[in-house]
Design brief:
Number of strands of chain B: 4
Largest sheet of chain B: 2 strands, antiparallel
Helix content of chain A: 25-40%
Number of helices of chain A: 18
Number of helices of chain B: 15
Strand content of chain B: under 5%
CATH class of the largest domain in chain A: Alpha Beta
Number of domains of chain A: 2
CATH architecture of the largest domain in chain A: 3-Layer(aba) Sandwich
Strand order of the largest sheet of chain A: 6-9-10-3-11-12
CATH topology of the largest domain in chain A: Rossmann fold
Strand order of the largest sheet of chain B: 1-4
Oligomer: heterodimer
Chain lengths: 500, 343
């Protein structure tokens, strides 16, 4: 590692409509270094990266690359200077193939004609460089898995000769096994001398990967640390500015468990084979598995979003078969989906409208006044500790954690007996995560049966009373709460056969 | 390192292996999402042939084929331009008014002199560039939604026409009119060759130039394109210029056909909505990013054949519109289903 700074950002300030989001941030990056940036959502990490990528022009401050001062007025200028960025939301066109996506906006031309051969040859070489053989240059992006799409994003940045690569929450959408592959890829780029800015909420990854860590809070740098000289607890304290005594709320006691609320017997769909399980009132059942193992499919089948092939689903002991999610909602189910922006929220609408979305569809207006237990928007906001300017604020302006609280409020209002969470804390910062975890446990204590899908093993282990592990559409086994990560991974990867 | 062909790859999973093989097989005619359009076209031709023949009319005769080709030219050319803007995620409602204006300006500038033909055409093409540029700038710089921007442009052009012309404008040079409007080689009218040339040019632009790639990229997602460093405004403006150019070429052709410019030729022909219908019928997604010229040409032919059949059967215009409406809605419904299956 050389001491020469590849990138230096000094005194970066940025305001949006009069509100200062960045208050003079300093950051530097050396060649061949992995520099992790951590901080709560809304701390200003994304804005900082966007000033580097030329999406936002900073109001004040300088950016130097190799000691030369640079100003980017357009993402193209940043690209040309060697800054590559892989955003949290992927920026690929599903209807175009891999090569077309990699060369978007800078297709090689010969006599004015796009040189498809060169494009595909170079793409193949790039895929080769990172050892990716599961797809080729002509594969439409629509067919790729999330992990494969990420590889495309990274080699796209690489093909731009990016010497500075920003990875924004790269593992948010990956399952445990895929994370290792990403790490291998990132380390490979590091060896090639690429400076990497690695933004993540997952501290474990930050420690596994980074050389240095910079903590950002409220638009300013709290501290830059050398990874080997710090620990998770110190980092968390720096991020949230308070001592967290425990990551997870205590598990439920035996006497809290009630009747079986949700049961699946021999459930089979296109992707599931013979899955049986039960969730009791007051219980949190974790659902583990790699991406594509059928975790989400279970939730969708139970909720009536996907057709059920065979098998039965019982709610409170009565067999049901939902043909449409509406029936599931009426029967007291709630489904907090994985992709809150696409499936959970109407982003351009107000907090109040979003909170009332589900209840408005199942309880007619004339009955709402007389329905007992309905909470007002204010009460919901208080119950979920939502931080927002007011009920009329548009949801798209909220941070991830607060958005998730709105989704949760939406379902709370329908007074569900069974709640299914799919990745409840994806892309949510540490402080808000603990809040969501508390809420989930509180719901269980109030007698709700909770099924929680998560790719984050610590979350599953810390939260669940029992853990079900899926492997290739089959229930591979069941583990008690507090099981170890290796135990779960063994089942999830199918390396051992354990009777369910 | 050689170019990796889909059929040569070693895919990781069985599912993707199957898909890759399918992809290899589909290269060629069937690779085009437009394939079902031509299936439908053949079906409609056969159906039309049977029905018209039973009715005692002529369908697959030289005269009638020429007639159908001739009819598809005007809608065809403007639909090619419409394809580009729709692929981009935009649309252009000002083409009908622009066609009328172009036909009037053509006639006026030619003034019956054969020496004026070339200058007149250049002036009209210039008009197309100006209108397209204006549309593009309004959409990108003033950030007006394309629907409203081009609707406003249609009204503005309509006002200009009304102010400048009370009726048809004579003066299209005879020789030019004869050459473009009425000459034919065998069953192929000269004007159809013009259509074919424009079609090849637009197809080539979309398939093989950077501009074409960018049209697909911007149509796929403007945000993605922008974050990838693409200058989206230029692409949007460029596409609108090409679209307006196809509209003025249509105007020139119609002037040659009618030997005069007409204030109502564009709107009477319904070229604004009809061209969008042809594009959609051809399988191009209104949301942009997916589709292409080949499908649009199929869509244009389907509309032309339907028209011809209705004319021969002497259907009233009410039945005609109902059937066309059903065809368009059915087509889009089928595409929506196919898309869902693929995803």
């Amino acid at each position: 590692m050389s001491d020469q700074s590849l990138l230096q950002m000094q005194g970066i300030r940025k305001s949006f409509v009069g509100v200062e989001v960045l208050h003079g941030v300093d950051l530097d990056l050396r060649a061949g270094e992995i520099h992790a940036i951590v901080g709560e959502n809304g701390a200003g990490k994304s804005t900082l990266m966007k000033t580097l990528a030329g999406v936002h022009a900073p109001d004040e401050g300088t950016i130097r690359i190799d000691g030369e001062e640079v100003t980017f007025h357009h993402p193209a200028a940043a690209q040309a200077a060697g800054v590559g960025i892989v955003y949290q939301e992927f920026n690929l066109l599903p209807d175009r193939n891999v090569a077309e996506n990699i060369f978007i906006g800078r297709e090689p031309v010969k006599l004015g004609i796009v040189d498809r051969r060169t494009m595909e040859r170079e793409t193949a070489a790039l895929l080769d460089e990172v050892g990716e053989t599961s797809f080729g240059p002509r594969t439409p992006v629509r067919w790729l898995s999330v992990a494969q799409q990420q590889v495309v994003e990274i080699i796209k940045a690489r093909s731009l000769n990016a010497r500075i690569l920003v990875l924004d929450e790269p593992t948010a959408a990956l399952a445990e096994g895929e994370v290792e592959l990403l790490f291998t890829l990132v380390r490979r780029l590091q060896e090639l001398g690429v400076g990497i800015l690695y933004i993540s909420h997952r501290l474990r990854e930050v420690f596994a990967l980074s050389d240095r860590i910079t903590v950002i809070k409220d638009g300013g740098v709290v501290k830059s640390l050398t990874t080997s000289e710090t620990n998770q607890r110190e980092l968390v304290n720096l991020m949230v500015g308070r001592e967290l005594d425990g990551y997870f709320p205590p598990r439920g006691a035996k006497e809290d468990l009630g009747e079986v609320r949700l049961a699946a017997k021999g459930l089979s769909t296109v992707l599931l084979r013979d899955v049986s399980f039960e969730v009791r009132a007051g219980e949190i059942v974790g659902l583990a598995g790699l991406q594509g193992s059928g975790r989400t499919e279970i939730a969708r089948a139970v909720f009536g979003a996907d057709p059920v092939g065979s098998g039965t689903i019982e709610v409170d002991g009565k067999p049901v078969r939902f043909k449409h999610p509406r029936q599931a909602v009426k029967a007291g189910l709630g489904f907090i989906t994985e992709d809150r922006k696409a499936e959970g929220l109407a982003l351009a609408q107000s907090i109040a409208d979003n909170m009332l979305l589900a209840v408005r569809t199942v309880v007619p207006a004339r009955k709402r006044r007389s329905t007992p237990g309905l909470m007002s928007v204010k009460e919901l906001a208080a119950a979920t500790e939502l931080r927002a300017r007011g009920p009329e604020q548009e949801v798209r302006f909220l941070s991830g954690g607060n958005q998730q609280k709105v989704v949760l409020s939406k379902w709370l209002e329908t007074q569900p007996q069974i709640l299914i969470f799919d990745e409840p804390t994806r892309g949510i910062d540490v402080g808000a995560k603990a809040g969501i975890h508390d809420l989930i446990r509180k719901l269980a204590k109030d007698g709700v049966a909770v099924l929680m899908i998560s790719s984050e093993l610590p979350e599953l282990i810390g939260m669940s009373d029992r853990i079900l592990v899926m492997h290739e559409g089959v229930l591979a086994g069941e583990l008690p709460g507090g099981a170890s990560e290796p135990q779960i991974m063994e089942l999830a990867t199918g390396s051992t056969e354990v009777a369910a | 390192m050689t170019v990796v062909d889909p059929s040569e790859q070693s895919p990781g999973t069985r599912a993707s292996a199957r898909r890759e093989r399918v992809a290899g097989w589909r290269v060629g005619v069937l690779a085009s999402p437009a394939a079902p359009v031509y299936g439908a076209l053949i079906g409609i031709i056969i159906l039309g042939w049977i029905v018209v023949t039973i009715d005692g009319g002529d369908f697959l005769t030289t005269g009638n084929i020429v007639n159908m080709l001739q009819r598809s030219v005007a809608l065809g050319i403007v639909s090619l331009g419409q394809t580009i803007v729709i692929l981009l995620g935009s649309l252009d409602l000002s083409v009908a008014a622009l066609i009328s204006l172009a036909s009037l300006v053509t006639a006026e500038q030619m003034g019956g002199e054969s020496g004026n033909v070339i200058p007149a055409i250049l002036i009209v093409l210039g008009l197309g560039v100006v209108v397209g540029l204006a549309n593009g700038l309004i959409i990108t710089k003033l950030r007006v939604n394309a629907f409203i921007a081009t609707l406003g442009m249609a009204l503005i052009l309509g006002g200009i026409i009304e102010n400048g012309w009370n009726g048809p404008q004579g003066g299209v040079t005879d020789g030019f009119s004869q050459n473009l409007g009425y000459t034919r080689f065998g069953v192929i009218p000269m004007s159809f060759i013009l259509f074919a040339v424009v079609a090849v040019v637009v197809w080539f632009i979309l398939r093989s130039t950077r501009f074409g790639y960018r049209v697909y990229a911007v149509g796929g997602s403007e945000d993605v394109s922008k974050l990838s460093g693409l200058r989206t405004h230029r692409t949007i403006i460029g596409a609108h210029i090409v679209c307006s150019l196809t509209a003025v070429i249509t105007g020139i052709f119609l002037a040659s056909r009618l030997k005069a410019g007409t204030p109502t030729v564009g709107l009477d022909g319904g070229y604004d909505l009809e061209s969008i219908a042809a594009v959609v019928l051809g399988g191009t997604a209104l949301t942009g990013g997916r589709g292409g010229v080949i499908g649009t040409i199929g869509g244009v032919f389907i509309l032309a054949v339907l028209d011809n059949v209705f004319n021969q059967l002497e259907f009233n215009s009410f039945v005609r519109d109902v059937v066309r409406g059903i065809v368009i809605i059915a087509a889009v419904a089928i595409y929506a289903r196919r898309q869902e299956k693929k995803a």
